[in-house]
Each structure stands twice: as C-alpha cells, then as structure tokens.
C-alpha cells in the first residue's frame, strides 16, 4: 500500500470530460470561497432517478468525486472486482460539492466505505489547501455522524500537465489530508500521485488525454494497480454486507 511515501519528494517538483475546464479558474490558491453547489442539481437528480429505477446495494463502496472519478465509471467495477461499487462521480465538482450532496448520493446507500477523489478543482478554483483539508474533515464527520464505522479511501490529488503550476498547492493539500488519515484508522490516504510521475518528477505525458488534464486508460491502470490492493486487503472480507435491497 502506498500512503504518501513520496509526498516530500513531490514537493520538489480533475472536472468532467463533458464539462469545459475554465482557464480563468486555474490560478494559484488565494483563499477564494467555494461556489454554489446547486450548479450540480441536475446531475444529482439524474443519480436519484437512476437509484429509483435500479436501487443500489446497501453496504457497498461508494466512489465519489470529480471528473477523474466520473471518467472511471465505465471500467471501475471491472478494475476493482470483485468488490461491489456504486460509481457517483460528477465532473467539475469539488470537496464542498461532495459535502453538500452527501445526504443524497452517499448516506442513502449506507456505504461501508467511500472512495473519494476531490481537491483537483478546488485548487484550480483558488481554494487554499487548508480549506480543502478542513472540508474533507467536514465530509468525514458528516458521514461518521450516521455511519461511524464507514471507511474512507482518499485518492491523492493528481499531478497533471495542464495544472502543473498548481502542484505545490495540490501537494500541500495532499500532505494535510494524509496527516488527518494517519490520525484515524478509518481513513486511508492512497498515493495514486506518485505513480503518475516520471523518473524526473514530472507528470507522465502518455497517461493524459489531449487536454493534458483528464486521464486516458493508461492513467486509470495506474490508479487501479495502486488502489485495488489497498481496497481488497480491507474490504473483501465485508463483501457479504453488500446486498441488494
């Protein structure tokens, strides 16, 4: 399991495929406030409509996050088999959006675990590392208020070519969240970022799409190979809990 071993090294040195990346938001973190989560209301309503037609299993693993999670929807169940997953990525989202909609796309499923990818867009929108980490803790506290045994697997904010200028801020947020994870046995920091860097400490060009932000299949293979052993080690024993309603 990789749990931030390369964090210090990385100091030296994602949004939905269907949603444009706004360059004006890609400035350095300067203490801006989070935007209104209501901009994702239609996305959440689509999840709710899907849940009505085909109710997800209780006690599964909910996978929530921005476009990097949304882009994994087609293959994540195969990549992390035999674990039972509920993919709920909504592109362009940030940590505060995940917090805001937790009552609708997390808690109703009573997940035994949550795989979370946020922080990428937060940094691009000017949110400070401290606020990102604090909002992560708010989300954890909200879920644990109803599901105290729920485990969290936080996927490190990824390095990308288009947002490389923001990497120091992203990595600072990674460090803060990794520190929180060390303090709570229910939280795991999964360092998917290290595997995305080449021998010189730069983002691997071959794992990104033309926008240099979203990952292609090679990028997801890296995530799969890092995350799957971590999940299987702990979560496979609980598969019997994930039962259809």
Task: Give a written overview of the molecule.
The protein is 38% helix and 10% strand. Helix 8 packs parallel to helix 9 (167-182). It has a 5-stranded parallel sheet. It is built from 10 helices and 5 strands, in the order H-H-E-H-H-E-H-H-E-H-H-E-H-E-H. It has one domain: SGNH hydrolase (Rossmann fold), CATH 3.40.50.1110. The chain is an alpha/beta fold.
List the helices and strands and how they pair.
Layout lengths: L6 H4 L30 H13 L7 E5 L1 H4 L5 H4 L5 E5 L5 H6 L1 H4 L7 E5 L2 H5 L4 H18 L4 E5 L11 H16 L4 E4 L26 H19 L10
Parallel strand pairs: 1-2, 1-3, 3-4, 4-5
Helix pairs in contact: 8-9
Provide a short characterization of the protein structure:
This protein is an alpha/beta fold and about 240 residues long.
In the CATH hierarchy, what is the architecture at level 2? 3-Layer(aba) Sandwich
* Rg value: 17 Å
Counting helices, strands and paired strands, the structural category is alpha/beta
SSE topology string: HHEHHEHHEHHEHEH
The total beta strand count reads 5
Overall, the morphology is: globular
Q: Report the top-level CATH class.
A: Alpha Beta
Average pLDDT confidence is 89
The side-by-side strand order for the widest beta sheet comes to 2-1-3-4-5
CATH superfamily: SGNH hydrolase
CATH topology-level name? Rossmann fold
* Strand composition percent: 5-15%
Return residue spans where pLDDT drops below 50 for at least 5 consecutive residues. 1-29
Q: Number of domains in the coordinates?
A: 1
């Amino acid at each position: 399991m990789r749990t931030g071993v390369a964090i210090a090294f990385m100091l030296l040195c994602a949004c939905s495929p269907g949603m444009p990346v706004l360059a004006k938001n890609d400035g350095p973190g300067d203490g801006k406030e989070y935007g209104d989560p209501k901009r994702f209301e239609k996305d959440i309503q689509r999840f709710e409509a899907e849940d009505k037609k085909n109710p997800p299993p209780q006690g599964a693993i909910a996978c929530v996050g921005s476009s990097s999670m949304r882009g994994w929807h087609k293959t994540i169940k195969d990549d992390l088999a035999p674990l039972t997953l509920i993919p709920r990525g909504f592109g362009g989202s940030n940590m505060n959006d995940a917090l805001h909609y937790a009552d609708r796309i997390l808690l109703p499923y009573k997940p035994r675990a949550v795989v979370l990818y946020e922080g990428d867009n937060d940094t691009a929108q000017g949110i400070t590392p401290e606020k990102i980490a604090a909002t992560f803790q708010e989300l954890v506290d909200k879920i644990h208020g109803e599901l105290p045994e729920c485990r969290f697997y936080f996927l490190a904010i990824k390095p990308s070519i288009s947002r490389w200028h923001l990497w120091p801020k992203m990595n600072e947020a990674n460090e803060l969240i990794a520190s929180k994870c060390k303090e709570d046995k229910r939280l795991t920091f999964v360092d998917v970022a290290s595997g995305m860097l080449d021998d010189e400490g730069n983002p691997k060009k071959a794992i990104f799409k033309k926008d240099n932000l979203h990952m292609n299949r090679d990028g997801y293979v890296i995530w799969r190979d890092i995350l799957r052993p971590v999940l299987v080690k702990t979560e496979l024993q609980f598969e019997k809990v994930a039962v259809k309603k």
